[in-house]
Amino acid sequence: MIKKEKPKERFSYDPKKIVKKLEEIGNQIYEAVREGRNPYIDVPTRGISNIYYDKKSKLIKMGKQTSRRYFLHVAHARKFMQTLLIASYIKRLVSEGKHASLREAYYANKHSIGGSKENTFEDQSESNPIIEDLERTLGVLREEMHITADRRGYIYGDITIQDGEDEFNTSRLGMGGWAVPGTVEHLKFTQINVDYALVVETAAMADRLIEEKFPKKQNALIIATQGQASRGVRRLIHRLHYEEGLPIIVFTDGDPYGWYIYSTIKQGSINLAYLSDKLATPGAKFVGMTMDDIKRYGLERVTEKLKGVPPNKKGGPTADYKRILEEMEYPWFQNKEWQRQFKLALKLGVRIEQQALAHKSLEFVAKEYLPEKITNEELLP
């Protein structure tokens, strides 16, 4: 049976440190102006060229390349101005203990520049990247800067959470559990009476497990991602694993999209490589669906064909086939078992969804499939 791990760290959020880092940037610019120099901000470089996989930590990480953004530069001036506007706004939010959504941050800083018809921001597609730039520059989560996104995903199980002045057990909030907010930095886990967390791709499957009383019978916490895990959910998973020692088991569809969801939870993502140490959980394990489940449980008649053209056909590979071949090249999937799964998927030309287990019976996934696999530790790395 899967065992709890010894906690490795305790997260501590200090708003004063965020304000201090922002003030350091402001003071640097002020000194440059006072001395008659061209003020600038160094921002870690975006792009694949500044991303690498660190085998020791098993994380996708950002390199040390930076780009310098000058004020007195025709190509840089607009972004320099936008960066200072957002930085000032974030400092105010953190200092006042208030939070704003990405959309609110955009509108709060959109206005016409005095004496011109030029707007500070024309669209949210301009403000969002600036917030990401500040994340990379300061080395903090946007959530720590009090910038939030819409909540997605929920949890259900015998775990008690303190959220401000409220304290509640997530198994006593109805069948729908507790919706994970965009920001989870302020949460405290006052009591945890589960053996592991089961991260489930679809809400429908999470609902099925709750209805079958899987969390109570198996002493598990259900975390429904509802598709690709949001930052809030990934951060929550990370905190539960590293701060509370909770084992993480991931349950997705057996297809390239499901495998990518697992990959993102485990190793991080290229787009957010600069946050992998706070969002990714390398200790996570994969329970299914696997290609072996098809024959093992007699699911041959309820598979779905892979989308696209296979590599051995004219015009191929495309869609699902192309994605599988790409995932086969990921450094963290370079082990015999994962390579065998990918090759089997390509050979069979099929994918298998979680809900296909209902072909056996509605109760099968909760009473046999998951308990057997998890108890016997039939998990992929």
In words, what does this structure look like?
- The chain has 381 residues and is α/β, with parallel strands linked by helices.
- Helix content is 38%, strand content 17%.
- The protein has helices spanning 15-34, 77-96, 102-108, 124-138, 203-211, 214-217, 231-244, 256-267, 276-279, 292-296, 319-328, 336-348, 364-375, and strands at 40-44, 51-54, 59-62, 66-70, 100-101, 147-148, 154-156, 159-163, 166-169, 178-179, 188-192, 196-200, 220-224, 248-251, 285-288, 304-305, 350-351.
- Strands 10-7-13-12-14-15 form a 6-stranded mixed sheet, with helices on both faces. The chain has a 3-stranded antiparallel sheet with strand order 9-8-11, with no helix packed on it.
- Helix 2 (77-96) packs across helix 4.
Give the structure's gist in a few sentences.
With 381 residues, this protein is an alpha/beta fold.
* Unreliable parts: none
Mean pLDDT: 94
Work out the number of β strands.
Answer: 17
The proportion of residues forming helix, as a percent range, comes to 25-40%
Round the Cα radius of gyration to an integer and report it.
23 Å
Q: Given the C-alpha coordinates, what overall shape results?
A: globular
Percentage beta strand: 15-25%
Termini, distance in Å? 16 Å
The biggest beta sheet reads:
6 strands, mixed
Q: From N to C, what is the helix and strand string?
A: HEEEEHEHHEEEEEEEHHEHEHHEHEHHEH
Number of helices: 13
For the largest beta sheet, what order do the strands appear in spatially?
A: 10-7-13-12-14-15
Label the structural class.
alpha/beta
